[in-house]
Design goal:
By secondary structure, this protein is of the alpha/beta class. Helix content is 47%, strand content 7%. It contains 20 helices and 6 strands. Bound molecules: flavin-adenine dinucleotide. The site of flavin-adenine dinucleotide has 29 residues, from helix 9, helix 11, helix 14 and helix 16.
Length: 451
């Protein structure tokens, strides 16, 4: 009997999954394998681990309905996969774009020889396939987006009816309570729920106090939903649908960018900003990470990150900007912190967005665009509902005072039970002064150095 092995890594679904489809149509039996790679497992925070464990459980249940099991092994994939592939004619997986995954997959491929077969599946178009007229990678989003939209979709294989092997190996790792209901059916339902709201997306998407976005980022990260499924279901006329497809393309852009420029995992895409004189201030970093900066919109974001691992894009941007521009702390420190805590934490997305906020990355976000944490709060959380939820000690303050409590009259603070310095911290820095210092530090980094 011909046997294939499918190595599940991120695409934790059976539908719209090219590696799974190819294996189930090429063979009579498939082994469905997930390798708990200690490098990735230990590097993930509890939110992502809990969600991953829950998704693996759901995938195992889907496979049981087909008469098989998800086989789980722990270890270095470069050793585990060849051992598990004994007796398998071919090994199938969907490729990814991060430097770590490329190194890991090259090692596995090397060990397997001709038996390894990589498929796309993580993105609508695989990284490396959307190029300029000269065959170069795009560095700017808008032309990338045009090329990405007009490129025809490569065909993906149709699934077959192979039997699924039933040995569960070490079994699915234990995990705590996940943020969202696990599995591809639940993810499909989340997409359907969002489609009820998609027409309002372009007006609502910047409001963290409302449920205006899809919250599909973790499903796209774990691959409990396929990017093409999302693109196909959302595609259509209307401002909301168009705005959403554009965001989906940002996800693709950052993956393509990291695949083309792997050094940007750690280094500024614009080399002139490698020389910014970042401050090493552990107390300020801790205040930021723990949501004690005294800027309520920033603190709400950082507390939501710890509590549930998902943060709306607007407060993500403002909190990241605060670390880099107001505290002048290296974006890489913030990037590491986010990657650990985010349930959707993904190297390509996280690095791309941090570099965008820091003004060191691709595209036209200039370094001198500095988010003002007070005006951002006033504009995008006008009633203060988002802050009230995550910074409950300020809940008694009315808007607009809730976004700048240090400016509120004493009677308003008294009435809300807020004592600055006791129940809630005063601002860690003066935003206007910090902004000026950041601009000077960026300017200095660009000035030619004396020989
Ligand atoms: C500093 C910083 C770090 C980030 N780190 C991550 C990360 O590790 N993983 C991650 O998935 N997203 C990251 N983002 C992007 C963005 O904040 C989230 O994708 C978004 O908030 C997810 O919510 P949603 O699914 O409701 O988004 P929606 O508004 O519904 O957008 C739909 C989908 O489009 C994609 N998308 C939306 N905005 C962006 C964006 N700015 N960049 C790339 N893709 C986008 C996501 O896949 C998202 O699920 C980061 C943003 C910032 C500012």
């Amino acid at each position: 009997m011909s046997r294939g092995l499918v190595w599940f890594r991120a695409d934790l679904r059976l539908g719209d999954n090219p590696a799974w489809a190819a294996a189930t149509s090429d063979h009579e039996e498939v082994v469905a394998l997930f390798v708990v790679d200690p490098v990735l497992w230990e590097g993930s925070g509890s939110h992502r681990r809990d969600q991953l464990a829950a998704h693996l459980g759901a995938l195992d249940r889907s496979l049981q309905r087909r008469g098989g099991r998800l086989r789980v092994r722990r270890g270095d994939p470069a050793r585990v996969i060849p051992a598990e592939a004994e007796g398998a004619a071919r090994v199938y997986w969907n490729g990814d774009a991060t430097p770590y995954s490329l190194r890991r997959d090259a090692a596995v491929l090397n060990a397997l020889g001709f038996r390894g077969e990589e498929h796309p599946g993580r993105y609508v178009h695989p990284p490396g396939s959307v190029l300029t007229g000269e065959g170069a990678p795009f560095r700017v989003f808008t032309p990338f987006f045009r090329a990405w939209q007009s490129r025809p979709w490569d065909p993906w294989p149709e699934p077959g009816t192979a039997a699924v092997a039933a040995d569960p190996g070490e079994g699915v790792p234990a995990g705590g309570r996940p943020l969202v209901e696990p599995g591809e059916e639940a993810a499909a339902q989340r997409l359907e729920d969002f489609l009820e709201r998609v027409d309002g997306y372009s007006e609502e998407r910047d409001r963290p106090d409302r449920a205006g976005t899809s919250r599909l980022s973790a499903d796209l990260k774990f691959g409990t939903i396929g990017p093409r499924t999302v693109a196909l279901r959302v595609d259509g006329p209307g401002e909301g649908r168009r705005a959403f497809i554009r965001q989906l393309a940002w996800r693709e852009f950052y993956a393509h960018l990291l695949a083309a420029f792997p050094e940007t995992r750690r280094r500024a895409m614009r080399p002139e900003y490698e020389g910014v004189a970042w401050r090493r201030d552990d107390d300020a970093f801790a205040a930021w990470a723990e949501g004690r900066t005294g800027y309520p919109f920033v603190d709400a974001a950082m507390r939501q990150l710890r509590a549930e691992g998902w943060v709306h894009n607007r407060p993500r941007m403002v909190a990241a900007s605060f670390l880099v521009k107001d505290l002048l702390i290296d974006w890489r420190r913030g990037e590491r912190h986010f990657l650990r805590w985010l349930v959707d934490g993904d190297v390509a997305q996280n690095v791309g967005n941090w570099q965008w906020v820091a003004g060191t990355g691709a595209d036209a976000a200039p370094y001198f665009r500095v988010f003002n944490p007070v005006t951002q709060g006033l504009r995008f959380d006008p009633d203060g509902a988002y802050v009230r939820r995550w910074v409950p000690e300020l809940a008694g303050l009315p808007a607009p005072a809730i976004h700048a409590p240090w400016e509120a009259p004493p009677a308003v603070l008294d009435a809300a039970g807020v004592v600055l310095g006791t129940t809630y911290p005063p601002p860690l820095v003066d935003h206007a002064e910090a902004r000026a210092a950041a601009l000077e530090a960026y300017e200095a980094a660009k000035r030619p150095r004396p020989a």
